[in-house]
Amino acid sequence: MPSFVFSSAGWLQPLRLLVAHGWLREAGVDAWLGALRADWRLNRTFARVHSLRWVAADMLALRLKANRNWPGARPGQAVLVYGERDGVRLARCYSLTAVRGRVLELAIKRQPGGRFADKLIDTLLPGDVLELGAPSGELEWPRDADSGVLLLAAGSGITALYGLLREALAKGCKQPVWLLHSVRRREQRAFVPELQALMARHPNLRVQWLITGEPAGEGELHGRLGAEHLRDLPAHSLLACGPHGFVQKALSLWSAEPRAGTAQWEAFSPPPAQVAGAGQAVRLEFARSGLRAEGDDQRSLLEQAEARGLKPKHGCRQGICTECTCQLLEGRVRDLRSGRETSEPGQPIRICVSAPLSDVRIDL
Amino acid sequence: MRTDRELTPAELDAFGAELDALRERTLADLGAADARYIRRVRAAVRLCCTAGRVLLMFGWFPPTWLLGTLLLGLGKILENMELGHNVMHGQYDWMNDPELNGQRYEWDIVGPADFWRHTHNHLHHTYTNVIGRDDDIGYGLLRLFPEQRWKPFYRRQVLWATLQALLFQYAVAVQHVKLDKYFKGRISKDEVRPLQRQMNGKIVRQWAKDYLFFPLLALLIGANALAVLTGNLVANLLRNLWTFAVIFCGHFTEKAAVFPAEVLENESRGHWYLRQLRGSSNLEGGPLFHILTGNLSHQIEHHLYPDIPARRYAEMAREVRQIAARYGQEYNTGRMSRQIATVFRRIWVYRKPQAV
Ligand code: FES
Fold first, then answer.
1. Who is most buried in A46, A144, A329, B46, counting CB within 10 A?
2. How far is CA A1 from the centre of its chain?
């Protein structure tokens, strides 16, 4: 979608209008703009890498400057970062640790088997240009938290919480804040000097590390997140961020005691692996029609959409004509002809020959 | 005439399975090289068109005018065939690149991309060479097979074919508006009007670019506007003639087969493949020739695998040929001069009712 941002360079506005009315083609205009300056585009957000620095043994922080199409975001939100592998455009989500106008910071962590992050980490240089997607994410610093805030992060979950924390402290937050970051190895603790400096400046902040996979150091906790780590905490609001299991544990520990505040969380996990076509129920969401429904993993998405009263555009119904193509926004689908699976957000799929394998959201 | 062996249902299934296997093997192998290729084609299109337009600004001076016109024509041919047509088939959808998305791509001809996606991708590719279902058989203007019912109108079809060749991009646009059905009173004005409006909008945009903007630009910088205008006209004409020739060689050669509508009933995947093979014909030539035809010179492979990047057809063709031979099917191929001669012969012969 073209986003007509007010602050955009004024001289591009006539071009945007011509593109919007079909007199010019955006790809052509973007090719010229990109040739003039690598991060110039008509509507898409591109950002130039300003600097890179290691914030943990396996986490690299980038400072970026976005072009004028950047719609703005809050720290704690995440952006999609686009890249390419084997000719395929991929996108991964990274939390913003700082936002000042069009200057952004985000941190990328190596993941086991995460070739996308590895490639970024191993090849990015200052001056490179990356495409970014629209920011998303609901996490917010709790407003009703006079009695304290508990921040629980695991692994790369620290990035979103660190962003929120830094902003809240800069805005003069005086309530007690307790941050616990759980990592497997000590070298994976991220932003350590920064957090220690914050602690020195803000007596209301306490940061602790929980080491799960090796002996803990001086002043650190050891083992998996448990009730003993949270005992007698005055905090009434919770922000939790990490893999599914961690977030669930955090929530159950938090709600074991009566609390006045609110709990917010964000969980990330690898897409659940499922057996192809095992006859399971899945949740379907047709984003543009605003329809959610129960579905199955046997029939094509086209049939299932029609069964729910939608009338998707289609032609041959056998995967030839591509008229039924629409975007997969979330989830995993299987090609009914070849059994090939896809879970790339934004990937065009032919719904007449695609069946869902997990809960899916499609742009229909 | 064709000398195909009829296949039993079991043979058809095996035939389909072999072609499916080739398809899967090729799909699994798609990657960075294909992405690089299509982006290079796009860069070549931009380079040709820009260079052509710059050269045309030097006025009537023959070397620059001729080269400029040729380059612009070449750019337009490449954009139309190897880039536009193939991208719009969804051949590069797997790249997930919004600029090369089959549903969103808009090409540089007067026919709106949406029209083409329907008449071509859906009707023509699904109902290939089925009389009454595939409007591409003669485009409603020509009688090319004895199976088509004769009408007095066809007597002058040499003239119709010539006009169509000269104005091919308009023929492609008009086809979807179904004016013929409208004149026969089979569809109403209300059905035609929105399509017509969409088509007019696209025509106005194309004309504004080629015949107004660039000539005016020439005026503005003190160049010869008439030379620019003529260069654009000729470039579009070249593209019309070339695309006409290539496309007519795809399905209307001597050995191309047509089918009655009954074959569509419960048609198996194997038979669908068989119909594509029998209804299409290839052209032989060098690598540059194939690129200029948008690899429609591999029409057979294109029809078997419309959504596989066309640059793969050449290597797939070797195997398709072997499979066809193993199942006793003719593989219709030849040099362009020979193939197009048989097309012209059809246009000439079937203009008469008794020619059956
Ligand atoms: S309806 Fe033709 S490809 Fe899906």
1. A46
2. 19
Look up residue B295 and give its amino acid.
N
Alpha helix positions (H), chain B: 9-29, 32-56, 62-78, 86-88, 113-116, 125-126, 157-166, 168-177, 179-183, 189-207, 214-220, 225-251, 269-279, 287-292, 299-304, 313-326, 336-349
What is the distance in angstroms between the Cα of B349 and the nearest Cα belonging to chain A? 33
Q: State phi, psi for A13 to the nearest 5 degrees.
A: -55, -45
Q: Which atom of ligand 1 is nearest to the CA of A325?
A: 4
Query: Cβ of A86 under 8 Å from any chain B Cβ?
Result: yes
Residue B18, domain member (yes or no): yes
Cβ of A179: how many Cβ atoms within 10 Å? 22
By residue range, what is the domain housing residue B256? 9-30+127-349
If residue A253 lies in a helix (H) or strand (E), which one and from where to where? helix A244-255
Residue B162, pLDDT above cutoff 90: yes
Total number of domains constituting chain B: 1
**Alpha helices, DSSP H, located in A21-157:** 26-36, 115-123
Rounded Cα distance, A237 and A231, in Å: 15
Instruction: Tell if the CB–CB gap between B122 and A323 is shorter than 8 Å.
Output: yes
Q: Tell whether B65 is covered by a domain.
A: no
Per-residue pLDDT tens over the stretch A3-31: 444 444 678 999 999 999 999 999 999 99
Looking at residues A181-201, what average pLDDT do you find? 96
Inter-chain residue contact B89 with A322, CB threshold 8 Å: yes
Check: CB of residue A345 under 8 Å from CB of residue A280.
Answer: no
What dihedral angle (degrees, nearest 10) is formed by the CA atoms of A314, A318, A322, A323?
-10
- Name the minimum distance, in Å, from the CA of A88 to any CA of chain B: 4
DSSP state of A331: S
pLDDT in tens, A226-239: 888 887 676 789 99
Within a 13 Å sphere around the CA of A240, how many CA atoms are in the beta-carbon half?
23
* pLDDT tens-digit readout, A101-146: 999 999 999 988 788 899 999 999 999 999 999 888 888 998 875 7
B94/A88 CB distance under 8 A: yes
Pairs of CB atoms within 8 A across A/B? 87
Determine, for residues A89 and B97 on separate chains, whether the beta-carbon distance falls below 8 Å.
Answer: yes
Cβ separation A321–B36 shorter than 8 A = no
The C-alpha atoms of residue A175 and residue A233 are separated, in whole angstroms, by 13
List pocket residues of ligand 1, CB cut-off 6 Å: A 314-317, 319-324, 350, 352
Reported pTM: 0.88
DSSP assignment of B199-242, as one string? HHHHHHHHHIIIIIIHHHHHHHTT--HHHHHHHHHHHHHHHHHH
- Looking at the domain assignment, is residue B322 inside a domain? yes
Q: Which domains does chain A have, with CATH numbers?
A: 44-132 (2.40.30.10), 149-267 (3.40.50.80), 281-362 (3.10.20.30)
Give CA–CA dist A225/B41, Å, rounded: 55
The number of the ligand 1 atom at minimal distance from the alpha carbon of A352 is 4
Reported ipTM: the value is 0.90
Q: Which of A25, A88, A320 sits opposite B306 (nearest CB)?
A: A320
